[in-house]
Design goal:
Blueprint: H1 2-14, H2 17-46, E1 60-62, E2 65-67, H3 69-93
Length: about 100
């Protein structure tokens, strides 16, 4: 049993499981922050350009097909904000000269 525990401990260290878990938890927590920035800062600026101002429920219909482009727009903006923050972290906080695939 002791050998199994040592192997497990080595596994956790070698694959940096704890660091990955911390990153996942922080990433999940930051999702609410990013959604709040998009919903309460970015979208109020865009809303006047969307018919009736209801961007979250804005749809486009082609016959019986209804496309929820407002929700899609919100998701795209969330993705762009998250990708930008990850880029900035890699560029400035981790002090990478050029962000590249490793």
């Amino acid at each position: 049993m002791k050998k199994l525990m040592l192997e497990f401990k080595e596994f956790l260290k070698e694959y940096k499981v704890v660091g990955l878990a911390v990153a996942l938890i922080i990433g999940l927590a930051s999702t609410d922050l990013v959604k709040s920035v998009v919903n309460n800062l970015v979208m109020p600026i865009i809303t006047p350009f969307i018919p009736k101002g209801a961007w979250e429920t804005a749809t486009f219909s082609i016959g019986s097909i209804v496309i929820g482009w407002g929700a899609l727009l919100g998701s795209v903006i969330n993705f762009i904000v998250i990708a930008w923050v990850v880029f900035l972290i890699a560029k400035y906080i981790l002090k990478e000269e050029k962000v590249s695939k490793k």
